[in-house]
Hints:
The protein is an alpha+beta fold. It contains 8 helices and 18 strands.
Amino acid sequence: MTVIANPFDAGGYSLAEMTQAINILPNIYTRLGQMGLFRFEGITQRSSIIEQAEGVLNLLPTVPLGGPATVANRDTKSMRSFTIPWIPHDDVVTPQDIQGVRGFGVADAADPLATVMERKLTRMRAKHAQTREYMEINALKGIVKDGAGSTLYNYFTEFGLQQQAVDFVLGTATTNIQAKIRDVLRKVETELKGETMTGVLAMVSPEFFDKLIGHAKAEDAYKYFSSTGAQPLREDTRRRFPFAGILFEEYNATVTLSTGATETLIPAGEGIAFPMGTMDTFVTFGAPANLIETVNTVGLPMYARQIARNDGSAIDVKTEASILPVNKRPRLAVRIHSSN
């Protein structure tokens, strides 16, 4: 049988080459991805142990039977084992994808295999990126969900912690908004527990943002802000409203789950305030692919490979990611909302 050449490398279809190809494609930047909030860290096992000590979660790797054990802190309160979620996504390149299809910008040439494969990988990468954004925004709130919207782990429930919340009561004209913001800042500062930060960002729903900038105690601050460089009549200022120590940003994102249902990442009338510039609070752990050749290797953000079918009818394109986003200090992310 004739061996089909890898369109990304003349050497053939190897896991390493395809994985490199999908990881160097232009990144589909989602908001958390743009900020780089969750640092990626590869691990060598497909499950990990997380211990909770004084409200801080620490990841511990599993080890082979008989191997050296990790040493827990004396003040450890609880310890749980978590399986790293596995997210496979496949596609296929058929003769119909290539035969008789013109290349982009080419009048009389067939679409080459490399172009088709790149388009397939780009779309697959985009789906993985959206899934990771969904998982990370929920992990920021202390919960790990899969692409179907099902809760896999709730760190607050698992470790007996309580999420912090502040009611801004934006429907009441006399509410002292600056006092509410100071309350949020103090809650965050108290829960840093040795961590550092450069500031606090609040990602809020459109409803919360509109109520905030329209509130009697915040209206002047928004007016002065807009008069010092921003042009609210011409520019979109929803992404940059600093007020009393917190940068408020409207986060109006809705995703389509694998079930076909849609979910708004920040519920109406709510927001989440969290520290920026931390060193080791927000981490996405990545496990190796579910393949023999990746056993005990350090995990990558995603993997890809091509497999030509024996009958020559198609090329299967397989991708997968095994990621577990962790907010090591869940109480640092303060839920903000308005009860009226």
